[in-house]
Amino acid sequence: MRHSHPYTIAYETVERTTNIFVRIETSGGVVGYGCAAPDLMVTGETPESVIRAIEEVAVPELKGQDPLRIARHVHELQLSLAEDSAALAAIDMALYDILGKTAGLPIWRILGGYRRSIRTSVTIGIMPVEESIAEARAWIERGFHCLKVKGGRVLAEDIERVTKIREAVGEHVKLRFDANQGYTVKEALSFVRSTRSVGIELLEQPTPSRKPDLLGRVTGKVAIPVMADESLMNLRDAFRLARKELVDMVNIKLMKVGGIFEALQINAVARSANLEVMVGCMDEAGLGIAAGLHFALARPNIAYADLDGHLGLIGDPTHDAVIISKGVLHPQESPGLGYEVKSP
Ligand code: MG
Fold first, then answer.
1. Ligand 1 centroid to 105 CA: how many Å?
2. Which of 95, 187, 246, 325 is deepest in the core (most CB within 10 A)?
3. Sequence-ordered strand ranges (E) for the chain
4. Distance, CA of 193 to CA of 256 (rounded, Å)
5. Which residues of the chain form CATH 3.30.390.10?
6. Which one is catalytic: 101, 148, 150, 174?
7. If we measure between CA atoms, which residue out of 180, 168, 255, 251 comes closest to residue 7?
8. Annotation says 229 is catalytic
């Protein structure tokens, strides 16, 4: 699928994305759907590796098995698919979809049903100031009221962009900032100091993912919440970040952690350490966004969503798996994740 608006972040420019859709049919005729959005830079996967993982590992594991034993299947698959988190997420999603369709209930209600909808931010990639302002205004005209500005390449330009965007959009719009690992500790502190009057809601992954202690050095010195994204890939990362109190918030993405089952466990670790949680996404089709949304709606401590990956995709067959209205995401009320192939 192509993006209607290609975007740039600290380490890449994204013009198109490949999602792999998974369809699991039970002997009783229930069909569950999942999708994988592999991202070489984050999960180390390619479309080819996802297809291989599904065909060679997941299919033999699941054939003839009871699809509702999700904990068992995820546990078994994790042993072989530790490096294939998006592939695992697609399978996990399809199994939850089957669970919901079997029960006749949407997944968010099966998982706890804490809220009915959640506001999402939309992304403004790295681009010149004037274009950033134009894009910010365009989103706000479409009813969105939360922007996530990308940066992490040139500190001075980042400071100027968020300052000018704030001037252009006014005080009522929430502004988040994601440096995608691009800063040193010193630059991160300088960014926060220089944007104090801008009112940045949160600072996402300012420093390199492989050195989580650097996040702690930023967190300890700034007044705004610092969030781990690329530094949180699995349950063990969550525990380390929490135990050492390195961040205030975590960004849980199903594609990174391998699906809803693992995301619920990571969320429990975050909750135990009083970390706030945002659900994020890769460049996912509507179906993947729906799965993230159902997870987000289920738990009280997930108060933030950044589920905009599907908005710019052209030709997404699952785009209506979620409903978006004035910047707020709502699930479909149909059973499962909310996607069905329409009969012609
Ligand atoms: Mg991020």
1. 31
2. 95
3. 2-9, 12-16, 20-25, 31-36, 118-119, 122-124, 146-150, 174-178, 200-204, 226-228, 249-253, 276-280, 302-305, 313-314, 322-325, 328-331
4. 31
5. 2-105
6. 150
7. 180
8. yes
**Cα–Cα distance measured from residue 327 to residue 121, given in angstroms and rounded to the nearest whole number:** 8
131 band by pLDDT with thresholds 50, 70 and 90:
very high
Å from CA of 138 to ligand 1 middle:
22
Residues 338 and 332 sit within 8 Å (Cβ to Cβ): yes
Contact 288, 309 (CB under 8 A): yes
pLDDT over threshold 80, residue 295: yes
Burial class (CB in 10 A: 0-12, 13-18, 19+), 31: middle
Task: Average the pLDDT over 55-71 and give the result.
Answer: 97
**Cross-strand partners of 200:** 175
pLDDT of residue 11: 85
pLDDT bin (cut points 50, 70, 90) of residue 344 is low
- Rounded Cα–Cα distance for residues 280 and 68 (Å): 26
| 150 belongs to the catalytic site | yes
* CA–CA gap between residue 137 and residue 26 (Å, rounded): 47
- Residue ranges of the chain that CATH labels 3.20.20.120: 109-331
Q: What pLDDT score does 343 carry? A: 64
CA distance 37 to 290: 13
Q: Is the pLDDT of residue 342 over 90?
A: no
Architecture of domain 109-331: Alpha-Beta Barrel (3.20)
For residue 69, how far is its CA from the centre of ligand 1 (angstroms)?
Answer: 32
- CB count within 10 Å of CB 129 equals 15
Q: Give the predicted TM-score (pTM) of the model.
A: 0.96
Residue 197: the pLDDT is 97
Specify the fold of 2-105: Enolase-like; domain 1 (3.30.390)
* 273 CA to centre of own chain: 21
d(CA 46, CA 18) in angstroms, rounded, equals: 9
Cα 306 to middle of ligand 1, angstroms: 9
